[in-house]
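Re: [ENG-882] Designed sequences occasionally contain unexpected residues at chain ends

Forwarding the minimal case from QA. Structure tokens:
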């Protein structure tokens, strides 16, 4: 059975497409040539969150941490796990220009750097091969991600880019090693010169350039990656916007990119960086606690409430959202990317 899906974006634009009851709404959109923002496509990251305002559907196979019972009652859905049971009307929390159409871009990239930079964190740098249309260049917005796909066996995972768009075709990633993770196992045996498929870029996470409010970035572990891209763009463009970054790790052995963050703080005078260690040793001289704890203290003392940007595990994101709400910051000023 095929149903009609009408999706309205934040800026009031509308797209319509057909979707089989055996397809997710995400897959139905892609079959019609519309690539909606998504990351994992397995119900584990929350990047395809939207609201079903009319119609019947079923949700299958997603992380319970991403959808609260209250949210589901008001129609919150993950489009990658939503199967239509009737025509559906859906509202999306992004503008129409963040929906790609046409054929999805696939590039080839060779590994030029693969190194462990902290406990359970790998740094991966790819060099793209020339493309008939774009040459060596790779255009994307800071905060976006790509899907990386291995050859044999085929493993495909989404990771945020940590560097900026460039003419040289280099892509940098910081990837957390997951216990029993297939891509994690691949990274630990991968060698310089091996080739990966690169799908994308995708995603809508990023700063709102029109806002004059201060910014708070809250990152859990490798959730730092999109903020690195944003901060590097700010440094390259000479954008001195009042910005505070809270980076959270479990212990000192998990800290990475200290040199890069020090250089960015020197290049962006109004940038403050706070590394937050949850289970710190007695030798640790910095903040002890989570980045959500640090955010709470910051908001209590802030003369002007900031826009809040969050990237990390769902528990961290949810805790930070609650703290921001209690401080008087509305949902329209909270932007998040979470993963499970």
């Amino acid at each position: 059975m095929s149903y009609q899906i009408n999706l309205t974006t934040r800026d009031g634009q509308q797209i319509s497409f057909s979707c089989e009851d055996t397809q997710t709404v995400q897959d139905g959109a892609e079959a019609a040539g519309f690539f909606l923002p998504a990351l994992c496509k397995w119900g584990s990251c929350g990047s395809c969150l939207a609201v079903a305002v009319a119609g019947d559907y079923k949700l299958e196979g997603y992380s319970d941490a991403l959808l609260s019972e209250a949210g589901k009652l008001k129609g919150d859905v993950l489009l990658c796990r939503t199967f239509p049971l009737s025509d559906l009307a859906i509202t999306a929390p992004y503008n129409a220009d963040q929906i790609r159409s046409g054929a999805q871009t696939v590039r080839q990239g060779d590994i030029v750097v693969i190194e462990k930079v902290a406990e359970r964190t790998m740094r991966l740098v790819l060099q793209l091969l020339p493309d008939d249309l774009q040459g060596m260049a790779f255009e994307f917005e800071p905060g976006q991600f790509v899907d990386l796909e291995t050859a044999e066996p085929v493993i495909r995972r989404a990771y945020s880019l940590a560097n900026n768009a460039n003419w040289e075709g280099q892509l940098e990633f910081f990837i957390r090693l997951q216990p029993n993770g297939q891509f994690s196992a691949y990274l630990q045996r991968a060698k310089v010169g091996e080739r990966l498929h690169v799908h994308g870029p995708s995603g809508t996470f990023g700063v709102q350039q029109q806002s004059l409010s201060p910014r708070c970035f809250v990152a859990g572990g490798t959730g730092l990656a999109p903020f690195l891209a944003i901060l590097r763009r700010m440094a390259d463009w000479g954008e001195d916007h009042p910005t505070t970054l809270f980076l959270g790790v479990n212990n000192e052995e998990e800290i990475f990119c200290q040199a890069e963050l020090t250089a960015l703080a020197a290049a962006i005078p109004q940038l403050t960086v706070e590394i937050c260690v949850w289970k710190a040793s007695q030798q640790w001289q910095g903040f002890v606690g989570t980045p959500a704890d640090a955010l709470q203290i910051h908001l209590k003392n802030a003369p002007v409430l900031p826009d809040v940007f969050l990237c990390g595990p769902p528990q961290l994101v949810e805790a930070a959202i609650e703290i921001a709400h209690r401080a008087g910051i509305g949902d329209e000023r909270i932007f998040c990317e979470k993963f499970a």
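QA comment: On inspection the terminal residues look reasonable. The CA atoms of residues 53 and 279 lie 43 Å apart. Proposing we downgrade this to a documentation issue.
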